[in-house]
Design a protein that fits this description.
Radius of gyration of chain B: 27 Å
Number of helices of chain A: 3
Radius of gyration of chain A: 23 Å
CATH superfamily of the largest domain in chain A: Nucleic acid-binding proteins
Number of strands of chain B: 11
Oligomer: heterodimer
Distance between the termini of chain A: 75 Å
Strand content of chain B: 5-15%
CATH architecture of the largest domain in chain A: Beta Barrel
Helix content of chain B: 55-70%
Largest interface: A-B, 37 and 47 residues
CATH topology of the largest domain in chain A: OB fold (Dihydrolipoamide Acetyltransferase, E2P)
Largest sheet of chain B: 6 strands, antiparallel
CATH class of the largest domain in chain A: Mainly Beta
Largest sheet of chain A: 5 strands, mixed, barrel
Number of domains of chain B: 4
Shape of chain A: elongated
Number of strands of chain A: 7
Structural class of chain A: alpha+beta
Shape of chain B: flat
Helix content of chain A: 25-40%
Order of helices and strands of chain B: HHHHHHHHHHHHEHHHHEEEEEEEEEEH
Distance between the termini of chain B: 50 Å
């Protein structure tokens, strides 16, 4: 038979490893539930089924599309191939302007209509969502 | 311009000096009796001196607005005030790396002065490891981001500094934070050196503790400054957004906090020696890792000055070499660690420190995964995702509860063995009392959730126990009492703040008013004004509270000339109970202004308690210095 010390050590290792595995499992599981995917208007058009999850849509604010009233603001996000209408009420960052990059977070009502909960402020006036940048680069 | 050459050549001279130091230390290491250490002292000073000269040349170039220098051209402008011309020196990629190097050489110089009592071989080895890091960064600076590159023809005007960086707090935030980051390199080098020499014992712990405290204090204050800035400048009214760049500064801090506690165990009990080494390595690695992620342009934020794959690749390679080498050293010399075979008793100070170390490691891994998982996913599958606050809240908050409880009990346990742990029942009753207290508080504000109630109870528990320690006259460890009390205060204020904050957002025209919680917010008028490099619109808001008190808020929108950027300056009224925060934004140049009004209870206590945490560290440092 093994001594008490060895047994204790084996027990300790088992507890340690199972808790590490449990931890990683826990982290990955909640990652799965809590990530927010980033899509372009074209990718939204190409979705097979409407997603119920919170998503982010990135693109450019279409020229002359901003329409503002006291409660809400409407505008159009475009990636120069497809467009999506956005309705939003809340804090509007300073860098939100027509013909500039924007990222909106919220839920899809249908493929043409997006209800935003948050508009993300980017710190840099030259910021453009990477996918849009790639597309402009191709042109 | 002559300063371009001075700066450039003094950098090259410091590379040469570093190489000399490197080889001198290696040759000295092989001799048995060493007489040349005075030499090394001078060389260290000259190395620091030349980097300093180079740094000052860059400052002078910025002050004189010398646009023949590309760095100055890209980041400065003649209309900027003198203060921001100077602080603009480190408000860009090249300059901030030069600052990083300056602090790196300074801390090596300080190390050599302060470590006279340590074995000479350990000092030489530390010097060697440190020089590897210094040379690596010097080459990086000269090769990929030389601050002294010139441009021809000389432009008449510069491109200007990002206006949100033109702020007094942001002028001191980088140097303070960098000092915290960079001095972890000394901990890293010294722990590897003492590992090789087989010196990982209580005497070494006593010495390196000073460095751990210094970098921990600076890192704490540095993060605090960044957080305060984000609060009033970004106009979101929060202090922590779980933004990747914030997480990256928090990770070395967590690792360093764990190290800070386990070095105490090493000092008092000669236990946990290999864990200490692992933590030292990981702290520095996380610091460099932060630099890599931020500087490479992978994370898009205000800290990302330039998108240059070459730079990212260089730091990544350098990081891999560092980690690889330190792991090789660790496994080769691990047998040098003297293991103390004393048993760990469950109810002792050391085991409660160890348990909390594990919790900190758990927090660290959650933040690490949450931060780098999106990067990996994007590289592997081209999918873009983001991981937001819900993820961190869900995984961190439940584990904060046992963490707080251990933190309350741990410091009052003894080392080695506890004979009289008879007041168990007393502690339990006290906890139940706190549970009831927090239940009533939460019920009062109508948001009852189980986790919140228990969490609040746990933080009240910590609060009262640390407060008791703090006022106890003969309590042994003042610095620990202050820091832990500060921490409990921090958690309490964050909790109260997040439960009780209220806000309203609306689009208003001049003359309109809205009601908010029995207050009327009236938008009276807009006035325009101007500064040296911006024009501004000042909104006048009058808030009538229910008891007929009037508050006037004057938030501002600034339109900077170069680069053409609009920023909002919030108007914040602070007192000890709550902050009132009003910020306006311009929408499309229409008549509508986007107005946000917030009431944030106990906001100032978040800052004060963090300062208290840092003060606790300083007390410990000063006390040790006196002895």
């Amino acid at each position: 038979m093994y001594g008490r010390k060895v047994k204790l050590r084996v027990l300790f290792l088992i507890v340690l490893f199972s808790s590490i595995i449990l931890t990683i499992f826990l982290i990955l599981k909640s990652l799965e539930e809590n990530v927010v995917y980033f899509l372009s208007p074209t990718e939204v058009k190409n979705l097979n089924e409407l997603t119920q999850d919170k998503i982010r849509i990135g693109g450019m604010v279409k020229k002359n599309s901003i329409n503002i009233s006291s409660e809400k603001i409407n505008f159009v996000i475009t990636d120069f191939k497809n467009e999506i209408n956005v309705v939003y009420s809340g804090l509007i960052p300073n860098l939100f302007q027509e013909n500039k990059g924007v990222v909106a977070e919220g839920f899809l009502e249908d493929k043409n209509y997006f209800k935003a909960e948050k508009i993300l402020a980017k710190h840099d006036e030259n910021y453009m969502p990477p996918k849009i940048k790639e597309k402009l680069g191709e042109k | 311009m002559i300063f371009n050459y001075i700066g450039n050549y003094s950098l090259i001279i410091s590379v040469i000096i570093s190489l000399i130091i490197f080889f001198l230390s290696i040759s000295n290491l092989q001799k048995i009796n060493i007489q040349k250490k005075i030499n090394l002292n001078k060389l260290n000073f000259f190395q620091f001196f030349f980097v300093l000269v180079s740094f000052f040349s860059l400052v002078v170039l910025f002050v004189l607005s010398e646009f023949s220098n590309i760095t100055v051209f890209n980041n400065s402008h003649t209309t900027k005030s003198l203060f921001y011309k100077i602080s603009g020196t480190w408000g860009n990629h090249e300059g901030s790396l030069l600052l990083w190097l300056l602090i790196l050489t300074l801390s090596l110089f300080l190390y050599f002065l302060s470590s006279k009592n340590r074995p000479i071989k350990e000092r030489l080895l530390t010097l060697i490891f440190q020089e590897v890091i210094i040379i690596g960064f010097l080459v990086f600076l000269l090769k990929t981001s030389n601050p002294f590159n010139q441009i021809f023809p000389i432009p008449k005007e510069g491109l200007g500094l990002n206006p949100i960086l033109q702020d007094p707090i942001l002028a001191i935030h980088p140097p303070v934070l960098y000092f915290g980051y960079v001095s972890t390199s000394i901990i890293f080098s010294s722990s590897l050196a003492s590992l090789v020499q087989g010196n990982v014992n209580n005497l070494w712990a006593k010495y390196i503790k000073k460095w751990i405290f210094v970098s921990w204090i600076f890192l704490t204050i540095g993060i605090l400054l960044g957080s305060i800035w984000a609060y009033y400048e970004l106009g979101w009214g929060g202090f922590w957004f779980w933004d990747p760049v914030e997480n990256i500064s928090l990770m070395p801090w967590l690792s360093l906090t764990a190290l800070l506690h386990c070095i105490l165990v090493l000092e008092k009990r000669s236990l946990l020696s290999s864990w200490t080494i692992v933590l030292s390595i990981s702290t520095f690695t996380l610091s460099v890792c932060g630099t890599f992620l931020v500087r490479s342009g992978i994370l898009n934020s205000v800290h990302t000055f330039a998108n240059d794959p070459e730079r990212g690749l260089f730091i990544l390679t350098f990081l891999f070499i560092l980690v690889f080498l330190s792991l090789v050293i660790y496994f080769l010399y691990e047998k040098n660690l003297k293991t103390n075979n004393d048993k760990f008793n469950l109810l002792t100070k050391e085991s409660s420190i160890l348990i909390n170390n594990w919790f900190v490691m758990y927090f660290l891994s959650v933040i690490l995964i949450g931060t780098i998982y999106p990067i990996f996913l994007e590289v592997l599958s081209d999918q873009k995702i983001s991981v937001g606050p819900p993820f961190f809240n869900k995984l961190l908050i439940p584990f904060l509860i046992p963490f707080l409880i251990f933190m309350s009990i741990g410091p009052n346990l003894n080392w080695i063995k506890n004979k009289n742990f008879g007041n168990k029942i007393q502690l339990a009753i006290f906890f139940i009392l706190n549970l009831m207290l927090s239940f009533f508080i939460i019920k009062m504000f109508g948001k009852i959730t189980l986790t919140f109630t228990i969490l609040l109870a746990a933080s009240f528990y910590l609060f009262f126990i640390t407060f008791k320690d703090l006022i106890k006259k003969n309590y042994k460890n003042t610095s620990q009492a202050i820091s832990h009390f500060g921490f409990s205060l921090l958690i309490l204020s964050i909790l109260m703040n997040s439960i009780l904050s209220k806000e309203i957002i609306a689009n208003l025209k001049v003359g309109e008013e809205i009601n908010f919680m029995e207050n009327t917010i009236k938008f009276k008028k807009v006035e325009s004004s101007s500064g040296s490099n911006f024009k501004s619109l000042i909104g006048f808001f009058e808030i009538n509270s229910k008891d007929n008190k009037k508050f006037l808020f004057k938030p501002e929108i600034r339109i900077y000339n170069q680069p053409k950027v609009i920023t909002s300056e919030a108007d914040i009224k602070t007192n000890f109970f709550k902050d009132k925060f009003l910020v306006i934004n311009l929408v499309k140049g229409d008549n509508y202004f986007n107005v946000r009004y917030q009431e944030k209870p106990l906001m100032i206590w978040i800052w004060l308690s963090t300062i208290l945490i840092a003060i606790g560290g300083s007390v410990s440092f000063l006390k040790r210095y006196e002895k």
